[in-house]
Amino acid sequence: MDDRKEVPLTRMRVAITVGEAIIARNILTEEFVDSFFSTLEASEVTIIADEAIAQDIRTRVGAHAQVVTFARGKETARERAIMSLARSGLPTRTNLWTKMRAYTRGDIGLLSAYRKRVFTALFAHSSLFKRFVRFLIIRYTSDKEATECIRSLQPDVLVCLSLTNFNFDVPLARAARQQKVPLLGMVRSWDNLSSHGLLRVVPDRFFLQNVFLRDMATKYQGISVSRVPMSIVGLPHYDAYLRARDTLIPKVQFFASVGFSPEEKLVFYGAMGEFLFVEEMGAIEVMNAMARDGAFGPRARVLVRAHPKFKPPPEKLAQFTHVVFDGDTSYLDEKGKGLTSEERYMHALSYADAVVTAASTVAVDAIPFGRRAICVGFDGARKDMPYWLSVKRYYDCYTHFEAFMETGAAAYAPTPQDLAKEVLASFTPSYVDEAARKRAQALLLDPLDGNAGRRLGEELARGLNAYARP
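Structure (tokenized):
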């Protein structure tokens, strides 16, 4: 935060992108809306939203802003070619994993995979290459629908809340650049600057969730803090996690709501989805057998929470005797129908006797609840999983998750036997390594003080001040 005299935000036209449900959940909290929009009362604010979530956005922002919808046009062959350069533009281990996984799945040929690997090795370390690709993106690609959207709104500033949403924020950010509209921006999640290729459009000012994203921006993205001011603000969504203890229903009541009796041990598994964890159902089958056979102690069962974007059909879990499946998950919920999906998630993280996942953000989400997650490192009962499809690669070729595991804040279970050992250990109060938890928090969650929504609103307002018209 700076000390300069602030200019009242009057006579401004501000456009803000909200292209997917997770952005609405993570950013548009009550605290952010109250903090940010109260500063813009004299301005004209427009939310550019995806049609599928437009009504939810209208409910969240009320009379603070008008909401319009946007859908990008068809990508041209030239744009696909230029964007392929951006996808290979980071020298991270995730980049390597992505190429070889695509080859193993049959999505690309071996020659293509190695050609891209050579390209990355030759050019991805070059800041000149990164500037050249970004020049090509602004100069030689366009989207008619995005151009018309920005031209019709004529914003003084565009705020993009997810600059790695390639089918929503990127076309709009590019159109804003082409029309000389200042750009403030964020990325959606902690993996975005190490996993999604070269950031296509660099904002004039960056608002980041954590130190790790700032490090990825400078180390791999070629973005200099001297040229692009960066503010670390936290994630508004985590404010609710810190308040959860004041709003939880009793443990007995929550257990009953998910089909557990008070005497049972609840082993909570937060799913990645089979698209990412190919043998996740196999791993759940192993956990079912372990709970049935007493490997997790007497009277233990597993609660599986489906990933909101990658849900297996319920019949896949119907055969399991010791697994309860919560497939009614969503990033956006309606109130008034019992616990929402997000509230069930917070209760599970609070009340589970053990928290288990694979290489998922669930392991990070456990930290505000003072929990230590256990990360599965085996492919169900399979011993023949192709190298690049194995869940093990998330722990040695997945840049952001490697950094998290290095803090020691989560346990690694490479075998079912290790999982049983860690689950039993997690039933004891001493299981959490407080020093490791603090290291992970410093890297990924600080500032974790319950004020991220307010802080982001204030920081965005300060960023807009530079473009306010007196």
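The longest helix spans residues 110-123. The CA atoms of residues 182 and 310 lie 36 Å apart.
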